[in-house]
Structure formats: structure tokens, C-alpha cells
Backbone:
């Protein structure tokens, strides 16, 4: 395992976690910025209150999927390129998953 692989994977996982699906759903389908309505945060619960249960469920599913995808990067890289040893995969999944959580909390695409 090389540090550059870990760094690149962590940055990619952070960027995946930074995708603000709640804000995107609000702007694309409803024409509103969810941060200006309800409690002012882009959580699935606020989206459900303001835009309805379908938008809330869609936001929840997409946010869960981006966390799953970010944690799966290590396994995908291992299967395709064999860069990680088998005992390193869980550590990388936790690292990439944490990076995705940090991206979700402090999204670069929504000005943090």
C-alpha cells in the first residue's frame, strides 16, 4: 500500500460524500433552496417536511448510496488493480467511509 493511493482514495471519497443531494433535489425538481426553508438544513427530514415524503426518501437513499460507494472504493480498487492486501481492505474502507462522512458534514460543493 502506498500513501499516494490512500490520499487519492480519501480525496475521491470526500468528494463523493460532498455531493449535496438534498440541495440538488430541491433546486432541480422543486426550484427552491432547502437551506432557506424549514429548519434551514439540507437533511432528509427537512426535505420531507418541506417537499414531501418522496423527496425525503430519495434524499435518504442517495445519501446512503454515496456512503456505500465511498466505502466500496477500496474493494473496487483491490479487485481491479490488486493495490491493497486483503487485510488492508477493511482499514481502507473505514478511512474512505470517514472521508465520505466528513464530506457529507462539510460539503465542498455547498460552500462547507
Residues:
Amino acid at each position: 500500500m502506498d500513501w499516494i493511493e490512500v490520499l487519492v482514495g480519501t480525496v475521491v471519497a470526500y468528494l463523493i460524500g460532498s455531493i449535496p443531494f438534498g440541495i440538488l433535489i430541491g433546486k432541480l425538481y422543486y426550484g427552491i433552496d432547502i437551506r432557506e426553508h424549514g429548519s434551514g438544513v439540507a437533511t432528509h427530514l427537512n426535505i420531507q417536511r418541506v417537499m414531501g415524503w418522496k423527496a425525503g426518501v430519495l434524499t435518504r437513499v442517495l445519501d446512503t448510496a454515496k456512503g456505500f460507494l465511498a466505502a466500496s472504493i477500496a474493494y473496487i480498487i483491490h479487485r481491479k488493480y490488486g493495490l491493497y492486501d486483503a487485510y488492508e481492505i477493511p482499514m481502507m474502507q473505514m478511512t474512505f467511509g470517514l472521508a465520505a462522512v466528513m464530506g457529507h458534514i462539510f460539503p465542498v460543493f455547498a460552500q462547507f
